[in-house]
Amino acid sequence: MPITNYDKYMPIAGKAGQLANYQDYSADSYAAAEVIPYGAAVQLTADGEGITPLKAGGTPIGIALAQEIHDWVTNADDQKYLVGQPVAVIKRGNIFVTAGGDVVTGNAVKVEPTTGKFVATSETAIAFPTAVFKAKATADSLVQIEINLP
């Protein structure tokens, strides 16, 4: 049964990269080779030592998990991992991401490498294996997806 009253069980969805529920999830850590926004699809670098945001022709290995609480007082630019920081990458679980267009529950997930947003259809988007949208959403809104990568 899906959780429809998020604030009863966990914080309300406020940003991309936030876990969508407390069900079992799996994450690995990698070093950021570039600045990586929270909630971004990521890929391994050519040497396999670090990660970068997903680029054209890349293969997604997961989604960057949001870590910090935003500093609303100073409106700090703090919703990202900096180069060299360890990045928690969700491989399996439910997570919020930013929709790049209208999506419907059950659609397969793709990522638009130029914007980093998650879409259901696009000529240039890269398929995100074993991922589906768990809700419907419009462009630039948060949407829950479920992923299950090895």
Write the layout of secondary structure elements.
Layout lengths: L5 H4 L16 E7 L3 E2 L3 E4 L5 E4 L8 E3 L15 E2 L4 E13 L9 E4 L6 E2 L6 E8 L8 E7 L2
Parallel strand pairs: 1-4
Antiparallel strand pairs: 1-7, 2-6, 3-4, 3-5, 5-7, 7-11, 8-9, 8-10, 10-11
Describe the fold and architecture.
The protein has 150 residues and is mainly beta. It has one helix at residues 6-9, and strands at residues 26-32, 36-37, 41-44, 50-53, 62-64, 80-81, 86-98, 108-111, 118-119, 126-133, 142-148. It is 3% helix and 37% strand. The strands form two sheets. A five-stranded mixed β-barrel has the order 1-4-3-5-7. A hairpin with an 8-residue loop joins strand 10 (126-133) and strand 11. The model has no long low-confidence stretch (mean pLDDT 87).
| Main sheet attributes: strand count, strand direction, barrel closure | 5 strands, mixed, barrel
Task: Tell me the Rg in angstroms.
Answer: 14 Å
- Helix and strand sequence: HEEEEEEEEEEE
Number of helices: 1
The helix content, as a percent range, equals: under 10%
Shape: globular
The poorly predicted ranges are none
What is the residue-averaged pLDDT?
87
Order the strands across the largest sheet as they lie in space. 1-4-3-5-7
Number of strands: 11
The structure class reads: mainly beta
User: What distance lies between the first and last C-alpha atoms, to the nearest angstrom?
Assistant: 25 Å
| Residue fraction in strands | 35-45%
Write a concise keyword list for the protein shown above.
150 residues; mainly beta; single chain; globular; 11 strands; five-stranded mixed β-barrel; two-stranded antiparallel sheet
